[in-house]
C-alpha cells in the first residue's frame, strides 16, 4: 500500500508485474502460447463472438447460484464458497489478489462481467503443465471450452509470445487480415486503446477479457431483467 508509483510509461524490458497473480497470469499465458493458436486471422476471432457471447451469458446462472444473498454481486465470502464447490484450491492471498484484480469499480463485490473475467482467469491459472489437456479444470466443460477460445484468441494476438499484446501486435493482427485498407490500422489502434486501461502500452489477458465483455455486450446486462418485471 502507498508505494511509490514511480515512472509510468516505458513498459520496455524489466517491466515488473504488479502482483504475484499478475506474474502467474503472464507465465501461464506464455506456457499456453508455446502451444500456438488455432486462430488464423482476426476475423476468425470476430466470427466466434456470437458463440462466446451466448456461452458467457449462460454464466449468469452460475453467478446467481453463487450470489447467496441475491444482492446482485458476489462478495469474498460468496466467492470462497464458490471456489470450494468447484474444488478450486486457491490460497487466501490468491483469492484476495483475484478479487482485487477483477473488482474494477472497487465496490467490494463482483458484478456479472467481473465474475466472468475472474472465472476465465481461474481457468487460465488452473492450467496444470503436468496434466495437459485434462478433461476439465473446473467441472464446467462447455464454459471452459469458451474460456479456451478466449485464451486462444489472446495467444493469436500475442505474436512474440511474451504474455502481453502490444500496440504493434494489435495493428499487425488487424492489418494482416484486412486487405491493406487504410482504416484498419486506425481501427487497430482504437481497439488497442479501448483495451489498455492502465495505459501502460501493453494489454494483459485481464484487460483483454474486460474489453471482450464490452464488445460482446455482457457488461451492460446489469439492470435489464429478462423476466421483464415492469417496475415503474
Ligand atoms: Ca452477494
Ligand atoms: Ca506480445
Ligand atoms: Ca495495460
Automatic annotation (TrEMBL):
InterPro entries listed in its UniProt record: CML21-like, EF-hand-dom_pair, EF_Hand_1_Ca_BS, EF_hand_dom
Name of the protein this chain belongs to: EF-hand domain
Keywords: Calcium
One example GO MF annotation: calcium ion binding
Keyword Ribosomal protein: no
Residues of the EF-hand domain: 54-89, 145-180, 183-218
Top-level taxonomy: Eukaryota, Viridiplantae, Streptophyta, Embryophyta, Tracheophyta
CDD domains the record matches: EFh (cd00051)
Superkingdom, natural source: Eukaryota
Amino acid at each position: 500500500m502507498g508505494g511509490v508509483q514511480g515512472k509510468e510509461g516505458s513498459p520496455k524490458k524489466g517491466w515488473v508485474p504488479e502482483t504475484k497473480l499478475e506474474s502467474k497470469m503472464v507465465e501461464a499465458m506464455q506456457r499456453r502460447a508455446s502451444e500456438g493458436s488455432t486462430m488464423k486471422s482476426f476475423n476468425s476471432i470476430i466470427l466466434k463472438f456470437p458463440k462466446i457471447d451466448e456461452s458467457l451469458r449462460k454464466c449468469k446462472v452460475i453467478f446467481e447460484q453463487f450470489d447467496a444473498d441475491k444482492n446482485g454481486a458476489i462478495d469474498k465470502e460468496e466467492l470462497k464458497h464458490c471456489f470450494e464447490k468447484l474444488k478450486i484450491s486457491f490460497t487466501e492471498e490468491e483469492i484476495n489478489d483475484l478479487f482485487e484484480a477483477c473488482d474494477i469499480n472497487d465496490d467490494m463485490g463482483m458484478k456479472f462481467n467481473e465474475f466472468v473475467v475472474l472465472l476465465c482467469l481461474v481457468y487460465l491459472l488452473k492450467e496444470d503443465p503436468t496434466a495437459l489437456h485434462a478433461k476439465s479444470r473446473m467441472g464446467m466443460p462447455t464454459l471452459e471450452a469458451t474460456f479456451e477460445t478466449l485464451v486462444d484468441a489472446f495467444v493469436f494476438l500475442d505474436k512474440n509470445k511474451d504474455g502481453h499484446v502490444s500496440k504493434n501486435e494489435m495493428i499487425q493482427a488487424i492489418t494482416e487480415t484486412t486487405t491493406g485498407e487504410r482504416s484498419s490500422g486506425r481501427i487497430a489502434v482504437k481497439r488497442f486503446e479501448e483495451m489498455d486501461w492502465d495505459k501502460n502500452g501493453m494489454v494483459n489477458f485481464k484487460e483483454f477479457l474486460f474489453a471482450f465483455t464490452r464488445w460482446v455486450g455482457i457488461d451492460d446486462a446489469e439492470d435489464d431483467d429478462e423476466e421483464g418485471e415492469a417496475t415503474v
